[in-house]
Design a protein that fits this description.
By secondary structure, the chain is an alpha/beta fold. It is built from 13 helices and 11 strands. It folds into 2 domains: 122 residues, Nitrogenase molybdenum iron protein domain (Rossmann fold, 3-Layer(aba) Sandwich), CATH 3.40.50; 122 residues, Nitrogenase molybdenum iron protein domain (Rossmann fold, 3-Layer(aba) Sandwich), CATH 3.40.50. Helix content is 47%, strand content 15%. Helix 5 runs antiparallel to helix 6 and helix 6 packs parallel to helix 13.
Length: 287
């Protein structure tokens, strides 16, 4: 009998030693403090219901509207290590193709864990980012729910008999006008929604010129809501040199969308494609 009590005593002692360790690990998980330097990753975190772990975001983190309550650190290209460290984060997250290596080193020296994700501007790429982020946050089930929703939305995108030529214009007032070419998320969105990019032969962006707009002759212009507003709406947009000579200008064909929705390739990528596809169908019906 004494031997049994001794064994029980040892077991209780071991249990009492391991319990605090488990509690410490759980507390560590609960106390995660994340700075997100990507609107897409911020949106994913909210969609996974892990927003309580966010303490700071970048300027592209505009959705959902609750992000406005968080400290905004500005554009990733301008974010300083000091500004980030002021929020006392445990983790800083972003995309590999956007992060400054110097900033990574500065944060690591401060013992901040930097988590960088790969991305691809495609439906498969959007789903993979969601899965990667969900795994990191231990929210795999919720992540699969989000990817299933994307699949459902994408299946509802209708194939168009004729593909409209679409020109995406990035604007910050009349002084900053750029058009999107190859290897951009805008070309991908346009093509996935049933259109074709009106300009090719260059990567990312190049300045809009009268000659290039006339040569492209788009059927419709695509812009961020904010970009259209920076030009004072349709009046300013269709007054841009060369635009009035295009089919889009003559027919006043313009589509505006929320910037993060259009370019994020996150949880709402299927919704964005459905919306853009719907606008393309309206355009086709008018022809």
């Amino acid at each position: 009998m004494q031997k049994i009590f001794s064994i029980l005593g040892i077991a209780l002692f071991l249990f009492s030693c391991t319990t605090p360790v488990q509690e410490k690990q759980e507390n560590k998980k609960e106390n995660k403090r994340i700075v997100s330097l990507s609107g897409t990753l911020t949106e994913i975190i909210y969609a996974l219901h892990a927003e309580k772990e966010l303490v700071g975001v970048d300027v592209t983190s505009t959705y959902p509207e609750q992000t406005a309550k968080l400290t905004n650190l500005g554009h990733i290209r301008m974010v300083s290590a000091e500004g980030i460290l002021g929020l006392n984060p445990t983790h800083v997250i972003g995309f590999k193709d956007e992060f400054n290596p110097t900033l990574v080193e500065q944060l690591k020296k401060a013992n901040i864990e930097v988590v960088l994700f790969d991305r691809e501007f495609s439906v498969a790429g959007a789903k993979q980012v969601i899965r990667d982020c969900a795994k990191w946050l231990d929210q795999q089930v919720a992540g699969e729910t989000l990817t299933t929703k994307i699949d459902t939305d994408v299946k509802a995108v209708e194939k168009l008999a004729a593909k409209p030529a679409v020109l995406f214009i990035y604007a910050r007032g009349a002084g900053t006008l750029m058009v999107a070419g190859d290897d951009s998320q805008f070309k991908s969105m346009i093509e996935l929604a049933g259109g074709k990019n009106a300009v090719t032969g260059f990567v990312d962006f190049k300045p809009l010129t009268t000659e290039s707009v006339v040569a492209a002759n788009p059927d419709v212009l695509l812009m961020f809501d904010s970009g259209a507003n920076s030009l004072n709406g349709e009046g300013g947009i269709f007054a841009v040199p060369g635009v009035s000579m295009t089919t889009a200008g003559k027919q006043k064909n313009l589509i505006t969308m929320d910037g993060q929705l259009l370019s994020g390739f996150g949880p709402r990528v299927g919704e964005a494609l459905l919306l853009l596809n719907k606008e393309f169908k309206k355009l086709a019906a008018q022809q």
